[in-house]
C-alpha cells in the first residue's frame, strides 16, 4: 500500500510539494520510519516537517523573523529628534550621539533609520538670510497684494540688476560622459581665477522684455548711474509697452534705489512704485527666473571674452518671447500665496 502511494510522489521535486507529500503520508498513518524508507527526502527533513505540522497544524513554513533590529521604535524616534535638532549632522556624528542613548549602531544603520522616516541627505539650498524683520515685511507685502490677480500683476514692470561671468560660471552645467572621459575637453567647464564679470540692469512685464543696459566697467552702481538708467531705459520701456496706460514700477531696496533723489525723480515722472518691497526676497521677483533662463542660454553660447559675452547677452535678451514673460508674471498670485502659506519663509522660485 505504501509503495502504491509513494510511487507518484517520488516524481515530485519542489520543496513545497515534497512537504505536502510527507504530511499526506503522515496523515494516512505512516510512521516517520516508513516515510524515511521511501527516500522522498532526507531523514532530518522528514522528521522536521512532521514536527512542525504537529505544532502548528499547517504545512506552511513560518516566515523567518530575520535579524533582530538594533533599535526600538522609541529609540528610532529619538534618532529622528536628534537629526531634526541639527539638520547638518552627519550619519557618523548621529551614530555617536545615538550610542550615548544606549544604541550601538553603525552610520549605515543610522542612514537606513532616517530613510524610513523620509529624511534623505540633500545639498542645502542657498538662500538669502531672512531676519525677523524680513519675514515680517514679506508677510505685510504678501497680505497687501494677496487679492491681486494675474491681470493686476500684468500692469507691473519688474526690474533688477544681475551679474554675468565668463566660462559658464553663471550656473551649473551637466554633461553626459563615458568612463574615462571626465577630463575630456567636451566634458569640462573651463574656469579662470578672476573671470570677467558684466553687470546688467533690465526690466520686463507681461508685455515682454523691456530695455537691458550693461554697466560700464569700473562704474559704481550709485544713484547717479541709476537715475540715468531709469531716464534712458525705464521711461522708453513704459512708453513702448503701456503708452498712456497706468503701470507700476518695481525695484528692490538697494541703497541706490532708495535714495531720496531717486524717489523724488520717480514721483516727478508720475511713476507709481510697488511696495514697500521686502528685503532679501528674490523669490517674490519673477525677473529672477528670467535671469536664470537668460544665463543658461548665454552659457550655451560659450563666449570667450567680455565683448562676445556682452553681444550674446543682448542677443539672447531680445530673443525672450512674450509668452515666457507673461507666464512668469502670471505665477505671481501663486507665489504670493506660497509665501503666506510658509509664514514668510523662503519658497521655491
From TrEMBL:
GO terms for biological process: DNA integration; DNA transposition. One of its GO terms (molecular function) is DNA binding. Residues 77-145 form the Transposase Tc1-like domain. Residues 156-309 form the Tc1-like transposase DDE domain. Pfam families: DDE_3, HTH_Tnp_Tc3_2. It comes from the Eukaryota. PANTHER family: TRANSPOSABLE ELEMENT TC1 TRANSPOSASE, TRANSPOSABLE ELEMENT-RELATED. NCBIfam families: transpos_IS630. This is Transposase.
Amino acid at each position: 500500500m505504501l509503495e502504491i502511494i509513494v510511487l507518484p510522489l517520488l516524481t515530485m521535486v519542489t520543496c513545497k510539494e515534497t512537504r505536502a507529500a510527507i504530511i499526506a503520508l503522515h496523515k494516512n498513518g505512516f510512521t516517520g520510519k516508513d516515510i524515511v524508507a521511501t527516500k522522498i527526502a532526507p531523514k532530518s527533513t522528514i522528521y522536521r516537517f512532521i514536527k512542525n505540522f504537529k505544532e502548528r497544524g499547517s504545512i506552511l513554513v513560518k516566515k523567518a523573523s530575520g535579524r533582530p533590529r538594533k533599535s526600538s521604535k522609541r529609540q528610532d524616534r529619538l534618532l529622528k529628534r536628534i537629526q531634526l535638532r541639527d539638520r547638518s549632522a552627519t550619519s557618523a556624528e548621529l551614530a555617536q550621539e545615538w550610542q550615548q542613548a544606549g544604541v550601538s549602531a553603525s552610520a549605515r544603520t543610522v542612514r537606513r533609520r532616517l530613510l524610513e522616516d523620509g529624511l534623505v541627505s540633500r545639498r542645502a539650498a542657498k538662500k538669502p538670510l531672512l531676519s525677523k524683520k524680513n519675514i515680517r515685511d514679506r508677510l505685510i507685502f504678501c497680505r497687501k497684494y494677496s487679492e491681486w490677480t494675474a491681470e493686476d500683476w500684468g500692469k507691473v514692470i519688474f526690474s533688477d540688476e544681475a551679474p554675468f561671468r565668463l566660462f559658464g560660471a553663471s550656473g551649473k552645467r551637466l554633461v553626459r560622459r563615458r568612463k574615462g572621459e571626465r577630463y575630456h575637453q567636451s566634458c569640462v567647464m573651463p574656469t579662470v581665477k578672476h573671470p570677467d564679470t558684466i553687470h546688467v540692469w533690465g526690466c520686463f512685464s507681461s508685455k515682454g522684455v523691456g530695455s537691458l543696459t550693461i554697466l560700464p566697467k569700473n562704474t559704481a552702481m550709485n544713484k547717479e548711474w541709476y537715475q540715468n538708467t531709469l531716464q534712458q531705459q525705464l521711461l522708453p520701456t513704459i512708453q513702448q509697452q503701456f503708452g498712456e496706460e497706468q503701470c507700476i514700477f518695481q525695484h528692490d531696496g538697494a541703497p541706490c534705489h532708495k535714495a531720496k533723489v531717486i524717489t523724488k525723480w520717480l514721483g516727478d515722472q508720475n511713476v507709481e512704485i510697488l511696495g514697500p518691497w521686502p528685503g532679501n526676497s528674490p523669490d517674490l521677483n519673477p525677473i529672477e527666473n528670467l535671469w536664470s533662463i537668460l544665463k543658461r542660454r548665454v552659457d550655451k553660447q560659450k563666449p570667450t571674452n567680455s565683448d562676445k559675452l556682452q553681444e550674446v547677452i543682448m542677443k539672447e535678451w531680445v530673443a525672450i518671447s512674450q509668452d515666457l514673460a507673461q507666464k512668469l508674471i502670471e505665477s505671481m498670485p501663486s507665489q504670493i500665496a506660497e509665501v503666506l502659506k510658509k509664514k514668510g519663509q523662503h519658497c521655491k522660485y
